[in-house]
Amino acid sequence: MSNLPQAFLDVGYTPANILEVILGLGQKILSIYTNHIAGTELDAAFSERAWQAPT
């Protein structure tokens, strides 16, 4: 088993910082799935960077 939480603490992060990372990732993942399910259109400002399947 990894000792990653202890490694974070050893370099000066707090348990709250670890929780912030976990919560941030969870929020991003939920946002991605929600937008996919809802069919949210990509903002015009980002249209140049839209993903396209390889040809």
Oligomer: single chain
Low-confidence stretches: none
What best-fitting shape do the alpha-carbon axes yield? elongated
Fraction in beta strands: under 5%
Order of helices and strands: HH
Measure the end-to-end span: 41 Å
Based on CA atoms alone, the radius of gyration comes out at: 17 Å
Domain unit count: 1
Structural class: mainly alpha
Average of the residue pLDDT scores? 92
Number of helices: 2
* Count of extended strands: 0
Helical percent range? 55-70%
The major beta sheet can be summarized as: none
Architecture overview:
This protein has 55 residues and is mainly α. The chain has one domain. The chain has two helices and no strands. It has helices at residues 4-10, 15-38. It is elongated. The mean pLDDT is 92.
What's the topology here?
Elements: H1 4-10, H2 15-38
Please sum up the structure shown:
It is built from 2 helices and no strands. By secondary structure, the protein is mostly helical.
Characteristics:
single chain; 55 residues; mainly alpha
